[in-house]
Amino acid sequence: MNIVIVTGMSGAGKTTALRVLEDAGYYCVDNMPMSLVMKFAELAAAKDSSNSNIALGVDIRSGHALGELTEILEQMVIRHYQYKILYLEASDQVLVKRYKETRRVHPLAKDDRVDKGIAMEREELEFLKIQADYILDTSHLLTRELKMELEKIFVSNKEYSNLFISIVSFGFKYGMPSDADLVFDVRFLPNPYYIDGLRKLNGNDKEIKEYVMGFEPAVVFLAKLEDMLDFLIPNYIIEGKNSLVIAIGCTGGKHRSVTLANALMEHMKGMEYGLKLEHRDIDRDAITKK
């Protein structure tokens, strides 16, 4: 029997996670009273039970009873029940935005501000985050991307490192990404914008890639960037970082930054980290190709 405890911040995607697990054949129960969790696990573990895989949604809605979960998990270990904890996370800014969009009331906010409820929730769930086997930061994930990450873990059984990396190309004239952890400026490279025949193209086009990477400084920069990230990322994981946003910028976010972001993505493909590539400004002030 496999047990997945689905927990984390309200608004971070627990409902989506339970749906994915249900589609994968798990028997899912959300917000079960703590007093029934162990009994339910016993029934699922019974030899004649058809529920070999179960997923339990556990979060702040349990109130004071949430503290009982520590003892419940200890009992599962004693009885040799195999369980994993999936913790879904998101930044305060993203969570507040999601609550405003859905017009839902945070379980701990009541008549107070949402951000205060989020702060209280983080504090009360910290003990679960520390014990989590998988921590997924959904701040930069669309619903379909979250489903893909969950399927890697629970359907394809791929290795997961608890780190999700977003590679973002952008244009400095539109401002830097506010959530970037690492920012790299590639405006030192020759700009295809000033070359007739290249201005209307972007970094996804072969001609731009060949032009940008045709300069030795671009090749050297990419090699040094890859080497630095190969060193940094494992150390970020050791320190418990769950989300990393790598931003690469040029003037308009269409040519040089897109080319280098694509090249970095190619280097990181196949690694055990969750990966996402975004070209934030590639379509701004788009020039129609003829």
Would you write up a description of this structure?
The protein has 290 residues and is α/β, with parallel strands linked by helices. The chain has two domains: 153 residues, P-loop containing nucleotide triphosphate hydrolases (Rossmann fold, 3-Layer(aba) Sandwich); 116 residues, no CATH class. It is built from nine helices and nine strands. The strands form two sheets. The protein has a five-stranded parallel β-sheet with strand order 2-3-1-4-5, with helices on both faces. Strand 2, helix 2 and strand 3 form a beta-alpha-beta unit. Helix 4 packs across helix 5. The longest helix has 23 residues. It starts with a strand and ends in an 11-residue tail after the last strand. The relative contact order is 0.14. This is UPF0042 nucleotide-binding protein. Keywords: ATP-binding, GTP-binding, Nucleotide-binding. InterPro entries: P-loop_NTPase (IPR027417), RapZ-like (IPR005337), RapZ-like_N (IPR053930), RapZ_C (IPR053931).
